Amino acid sequence: MQSLQTPNNICILAIESSCDDTSAAICYNGKILSNVAATQAIHAEYGGVVPELASRAHTVNIVAVVDVALKKAGKTKEDISAIAFTRGPGLLGSLLVGVGFSKAMAQGLDVPIIDVHHMKAHVMAHFIDAPFPKFPFLCLTVSGGHTQIVKVTDYNEMEVIGTTIDDAAGEAFDKTAKMLKLPYPGGPLIDRYAKNGDSKKYKFSKPRVPDLDFSFSGFKTSVMYFLRDEMGKNPNFITENVDDICASVQYTIIEILTDKLKKASQQTGIKEIAIAGGVSANNGLRTTLSALADEQGWSVYIPDYQYCTDNAGMVAISAYYKFLKNEFAPIDIPALARWKM
Predict the structure, then answer these.
(1) Considering the entire predicted model, what is its pTM?
(2) CATH architecture of 11-124+309-324
(3) Which of 26, 104, 156, 193 is the most exposed place for a label (fewest CB within 10 A)?
């Protein structure tokens, strides 16, 4: 194994393959020089990610994505100090491609490997571009598979203080979009239609869950029954009212999220607030949090759009801070489809 690089010469290649996007990034001395991703449009035909197709596409895309990331960063394989990868959570087949590739390349280059938790990486995306949140801060992490409130006390030192007891916010967006016959992924389309709708026109169920936990199953059920009843009276109801439906759906989901976030801030006394995960790209949520900054006296941190959805840049910055503490992984470390923070 080669000796560790000095703090002014750390070049990390990071790979993200937890779901259907194959991504690679180069981090040099804590700066992201490139962040490249190959998406898989084929899943739109099935209305959701097909795990087997996703893993196969990763094997096709990963070499090219890494090559482009190195070229965009102006680096070569010989410059690499360590290789980082998403260990989990995620789709096991997809994770195995990224983990296996990273291990093989690391052994070939004789460099260490760094395993990264997918959800921690989403939080760490806030340390890619200034301004950076101050410790401690609260991060609302919202994606297709997770909805959490995380108390962050240091780089990679995090505690989940609230989580969903059933479905995630991103799934609520996508499943509602499917009810509205919108193509996959439907969450961004709801965001787009909501801009032209009346967010107070329709009322949907909001769960009564204790403490800081979330629930979205009851909300989805209320939307389903609402649409069933309205379509029974008017078969063209969705087509004629899609903007208002989307606006009302989005308003309710955002209210569920921000009500808990306000409660968490009050309980902890923390006013440094961040958001992360794929749903943090939602314009309605970003606008609402910006407004709450003034109302609640918060300092709000919202990552650049490219670092909201799954990407290797967030894996790279997370690995950089692990590198500084010499937190390397053994070569036989396995991928984990389920991995608690």
Answers:
(1) 0.92
(2) 2-Layer Sandwich (3.30)
(3) 104
